[in-house]
From TrEMBL:
Record-given protein name: SigE family RNA polymerase sigma factor
Highest taxon of the lineage: Bacteria
NCBIfam families: SigE-fam_strep (TIGR02983), sigma70-ECF (TIGR02937)
Any one GO BP annotation for this protein: DNA-templated transcription initiation
Family: Belongs to the sigma-70 factor family. ECF subfamily.
SUPFAM superfamilies: Sigma2 domain of RNA polymerase sigma factors (SSF88946), Sigma3 and sigma4 domains of RNA polymerase sigma factors (SSF88659)
Stretches assigned to the HTH luxR-type domain: 151-204
Length: 204
């Protein structure tokens, strides 16, 4: 994607600029992720599930909220992911494998939650006062709010890829592992998703 303009007044009618704005704003989502913001533990520090829970729970909840748009559902997804981590703890090599397990479990749990909603055909959007509440304190600009809201209009796979890339700060290889997609599919999906977000933003 081309970079945004170096200066001057923005031209919101330009397609390239709109996508650049979307990418720039998405790029700041990582600031909302406490797991990225916090310094890494010393390499020789002992790691327990409690350590991971304290350092990564809120990051995983916020990740799930961006995927399912509902804090209560997101917390259920993350709780189940940590329960699965506990059951599989002995089979994990190190902290990186444990965090990768959690990310994949959150993505899969969010997919299952959305499938259950579609099957039940009874999902009511959460009240505006509680939706995305874990992000709302940090979402200080209209640009952020508009882009995060527009994520909900993307296809689930597109939303997963963008959330993992920009909020999670993951590489294409890590996103592929978390979602079960190929690296090529991750790259093309991200490109189409950013373009789609630009279209959504211009239509609003």
């Amino acid at each position: 994607m081309p970079p945004g303009p170096a200066g001057g007044s923005p031209d919101h009618s330009g397609s390239d600029y709109s996508e650049a704005v979307v990418e720039r704003t998405l790029g700041t989502l990582a600031q909302l992720n406490p797991a990225i913001a916090e310094p890494a533990a010393p390499p020789d520090a002992p790691l327990t599930i409690d350590d991971l829970y304290r350092s990564h729970r809120m990051g995983m909840v916020r990740l799930a909220i961006l995927l399912v748009d509902d804090q209560a559902s997101a917390e259920d997804v993350v709780q189940e992911a940590f329960a699965g981590l506990f059951r599989n703890w002995d089979g994990l090599r190190d902290s990186a494998a444990a965090i990768g397990y959690l990310r994949t479990a959150v993505v899969n749990g969010s997919r299952s939650m959305l499938r259950r909603r579609r099957t039940a055909r009874a999902y009511v959007p959460p009240h505006a006062g509680t939706a995305r509440s874990a992000e709302s304190l940090a979402m200080l600009t209209a640009e952020h709010q508009a882009v995060v809201a527009a994520l909900g209009d993307l296809a689930p796979r597109q939303r997963e890829v963008l959330v993992l890339r920009y909020y999670g700060g993951l590489s294409e290889a890590e996103i592929a592992e978390a979602t079960g997609l190929s690296k090529g599919t991750v790259k093309s999906t991200a490109s189409r998703a950013v373009a789609k977000l630009g279209d959504i933003m211009r239509a609003r």
